[in-house]
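Troubleshooting log. The previous run stalled partway through. Resubmitting the same two chains, unchanged.
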Amino acid sequence: MTENINIDLHHVTRVEGHGNIKVNVTDGTVEEITWQVPEAPRFFEAMVVGRHCSELQPITSRICGICSIGHSFASLKATEAAFGLTISEQTRRLREILNHGENLQSHILHVCYLVLPDLMRQPSVVPLASTHRDAVLLVTKLHRLANETCDMIGGRTTHPIRTAINGWTMLPTEKELEQLKQRHIEALDDLSALAEIVASVAEGIPDFVRETEYISLTDPNEYAIYDGLIKSSDIDKPIPVEEYEQVVNEYVSPNSTAKYAKFNRESYFAGALARYNNNYTQLTPEALEVGKMLGLDGINYNPFMNNIAQVAESVFSVQRTIDHIDWLLDKGLKKEDYSFEPKEGRGMGAVDVPRGILFHDYTYDKNGVCVKANCVIPTNQNHANIQKDFDKFVPEYLDKGEEELQFLMEMLVRAYDPCISCSVHYLNVEFIR
Amino acid sequence: MAKPKVAFFDFACCEGCQLQVVNLEEDILGLVNLVDVVEFREAITGKAPEYDIAFIEGSITRPVDEERVKDIRKRSKLLVAFGACAHTGGLNKLKNRYNDMDEVRSIVYGEDGAMEHLDTYPTKAVHEVVKVDLSIPGCPVNKNEFVRMVKELAVGKIPQLPNYPVCVECKMKENQCLYDLGITCLGPITRAGCDAICPSNGDACVGCRGTVDEPNKNAMHEVLQKYDLTVGDIKQKMNLFAIDPEI
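Second attempt completed without errors. Output:
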């Protein structure tokens, strides 16, 4: 048993943004475990005030480099809700392809570039390029496909260009969509091969369990990503997006420049595992099968299994992309008028982005100029839950020693796939002696 | 010749520019043969005492960050402003429209905005705090331009940016001018190198790469007059990415 442990880790690596971990154990007693978020706040809700509706998506896309597509859609949906606009089915299907492209890009990046090195005990994916070259080339092939999907539909994968209020500035060609479909069909085999690689190192996933509240979108007709109602695992009835404030209950913590959130308990979980736990029966048989092969078989309370839920969702995203392309090719792509009239009012938009449920809420004046905005980011919603996990995890893994404990705590943070700069308003481990 | 020691640091930004490096996929494996990446928090675990080339991503918005970038400057032979937030201050300068930072803090955090750890000052580009040797513009940076610049740096050359406007690249792609479609665009004054990506996807150039060294005012005025517009009509677009040339 380790008597004294003192971890003071500043700027946890292989996460997007800055976070610190502080642990102080004296004579075997845990005195302090703190999760701190020191990321420089950027004040987006103040930046957008006074800006025209057409600028809101390009500005708020820049909240996060990795989820810029999800932010773009939450933003466009909020604006469309405020103006009373209903998008065409073609627009919605193209948006979903772009959404699934981002989900695949983010999940592959996270599971393979950021988490696999942990499971293989390597500092990054780079040394794996010489020791596991075929695996790395498989990963880059999938990641490239995801990014090129987004380039094709959105004009650019980071900060999409073609996404507009009520439609698209430009459409892909049917030939491009046909080629994209063929590559997605091939990707299903690549994902099976990837699942085998993850399975070969999956015994490194800690067997840690803490049941919590899981919040995601839900839709009676499909596994919700682009749209839906708010679902909490603690409540039977889903909640309309317009009532999101009663769910997120944001508050400011002295440990963090990112806001925290809580609903029915002191913290909740957002992200792939929350979506899986709330909606897994709506996944495709192939996605469920990949999850099962990697130890995820129905509701699961191990936060590290978030990464396995991401692998299962990757399969789902590729399959849904193929379905949407089939629909679009069957109907034929049509150039649509996306002009609109701004209207005074308030609108909210929610999207379940790779890291969890995301809300944008805008109020506009009659000229379509933003007078008030609120953005609630998935990583923010997870901060309190990460702290609660630490509170249970540290005493359970204390006998592993300082070095191993620090490694596992960083791994736990990375399991959440935090997107800290995205928290608008966040990693370092500090063991104090 | 020893491989240059390269490091990446991020300040107030979305980290989308570092993501462009990750998005190089297998090409990144070629680049890591040319340079020795000693710090890259987003993708690698590891730290080093000094660097030949430091890439700074993000804007400076707090005294604590100002101290950190000054310390990096002292330990770096060459410092590169990487992406719009570092280069011009980028979108982060939208908050500088407020005279009072307390107001900005209260808009986002309400009464809690006064808490000490939420301190912020008007956004600064990196060159406003320390000497910048080279800027790689764009929001996000262009992957191909980044690769070209790193290759040139690795062989000891100082890379140059194109000094002609986005219109040149846009015309070479035979795009229809967006002004013809009733869309105002900053292509005539913005520095090229992005392959006119926004106009080529049906959306206006918003100047994320900053302006060419001496923007051609007359040409900009001619375009505006032709379409019955005034400088006022493009002012709002110019402050989106904090470019404010005399037009």
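Takeaways: The two ends of chain B are 47 Å apart (CA to CA). Chain B has a mean pLDDT of 91.
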